[in-house]
Design goal:
Helix 1 links the parallel strand 1 and strand 2. With 413 residues, the protein is α/β, with parallel strands linked by helices. The longest helix is centred in the first third of the chain and has 18 residues. Strands 3-4-2-1-5-6-7-8 form an eight-stranded mixed β-sheet, with helices on both faces. The mean pLDDT is 93. Helix 1 packs across helix 15 and helix 11 packs across helix 14. The chain is built from 15 helices and 14 strands.
Length: 413
């Protein structure tokens, strides 16, 4: 097994990892070129809430190898169908097992650095803080979700006292981290509320799927393939949760159904609001929206490259106006114009860089106008978006650039 040139050992702590589909997987693969990478994670159960078959008998620490990365898994309670109780048990099980088992895990080496990949909940950082103490090394946090604000914004927690308690925990976590990375520029101001002294560096997410040019058509739903050839298709992919405001697409589809019967919407993914969306499609008897998936990333990529445009929607809330959803990077690489209904950072990026059309969050009336406009684009317009979007991705989000930026910042490269 090839050892890396600088022989540094980096541990990534993340509640989610391969075979779950998260961007940290790609980051770890690229990081491996420059350091020896180990990952501490839970048992995979996202998004369906059931522990993946291969892992469902595991009751203690379990180690495996993935693409030359050592993966150490700790037992957790699966998230089941979601909802506050199930999610809390899932989060707590990772936090407690990770913290209690931390000194039982022998990484068989000294650790030079720990990176905590901070999706929700930020409390999953506590095992990383414990390991930092045990191995006497530095710790970075890469903030993907703003806590406690995102708890409040999605409506999971409304109690002021509990939110206050979480803000103390967030302060404690930031204090224990040596480096803080944020997934968007707009996050910085919010993070500074909890840590005034520390410098926050922007480290964008990247999208990279092993290109599967030989993807077999037979693996793709024939209904989708047929619609892609017969209609102007617009796809939304990823999590279908409260933050994503997919109802905006449904309201938009109702307007468009009356104006243009050649337009079709795919909503591809899983999430807490999927059944709600299914009910709305039925209630409004919409024939121009279909629900699919979740699919493997290479199938999603295949579909995204064949649409007229791809859609991002976010809920109207101050916290979501600071976020860059990961699907932006995925959509850019598909080379299609992006249409979005979101405020703040995302809206600005799309307008400033001419990579698509942007309207305000939840504004389904103007979203429908934008979609009608894109459906009339000619080949030249589409080709110019393709060029612009791919080059914008390469200049800003390319994964190797992000990995090197991270390593330079933590003084390992």
């Amino acid at each position: 097994k090839m050892k890396n040139s600088n022989g540094k050992n980096i541990l990534i702590v993340t509640q989610y990892f391969w075979p779950e589909n998260f961007l940290i997987n790609n980051f770890a693969l690229h990081l491996k070129k420059y350091a020896n990478v180990t990952v501490l994670t839970g048992l995979p159960n996202y998004p369906d809430g059931k522990i993946f078959k291969k892992y469902n008998k595991i009751k203690k620490i379990f180690t495996e190898n993935w693409e030359g990365i050592k993966v150490v898994r700790i037992p957790i309670i699966p998230r089941k169908k979601g909802g506050a109780v199930n999610l809390s048990l899932n989060y707590l099980s990772f936090l407690l097992n990770g913290t209690f088992l931390a000194n039982k895990i022998d990484f068989k080496t000294k650790l030079d650095h720990i990176l905590f990949y901070s999706t929700s909940p930020i409390t999953s950082c506590l095992p990383a803080i414990k390991l930092k103490k045990i191995y006497n090394c530095r710790l970075s946090i890469w903030v993907q979700d703003l806590w406690p604000e995102s708890l409040e914004a999605t409506g999971y927690i409304k109690n002021r006292i509990i939110l206050k308690l979480f803000s103390f925990i967030v302060k404690f976590i930031y204090k224990k981290c040596d480096y803080i990375f944020a997934q968007s520029k707009s996050f910085i101001k919010n993070i500074k509320k909890y840590t005034s002294k520390k410098k926050v560096t922007v480290l964008y997410n990247s999208h990279i799927v092993k290109s599967d040019s030989n993807i077999k058509k037979k693996n793709i739903d024939p209904k989708i393939l047929k619609l892609l050839t017969q209609r102007k298709c617009f796809a939304f992919t990823g999590n279908i949760g409260k933050a994503q405001s997919v109802e905006t697409i449904i309201d938009c589809a109702r307007i468009i159904e009356k104006k243009n019967n050649k337009i079709h919407f795919f909503i591809i993914g899983a999430g807490s609001q999927k059944n709600e969306i299914r009910k709305l499609i039925k209630e409004y008897k919409l024939s121009n929206v279909t629900l699919h998936g979740p699919f493997k990333p290479n199938i999603v990529d295949y579909i995204l490259k064949k649409t007229a445009s791809n859609i991002i929607t976010l809920k109207k809330h101050n916290i979501f106006s600071l976020t860059i959803p990961n699907k932006l990077q995925t959509y850019l690489l598909s080379g299609r114009p992006i249409v979005c209904a979101a405020d703040g950072e995302l809206n600005n990026i799309i307008k400033r860089n001419n990579i698509g059309l942007a309207v305000r969050a939840e504004d389904y009336i103007n979203l429908s106008k934008a979609i009608l406009k894109i459906s009339n684009f000619n080949k030249t317009q589409i080709a110019s978006y393709r060029k612009q979007n791919i080059s914008f991705y390469n200049n800003n989000f390319e994964i190797d650039k992000q990995v090197k930026l991270f390593l330079k910042k933590i003084k390992i490269l």
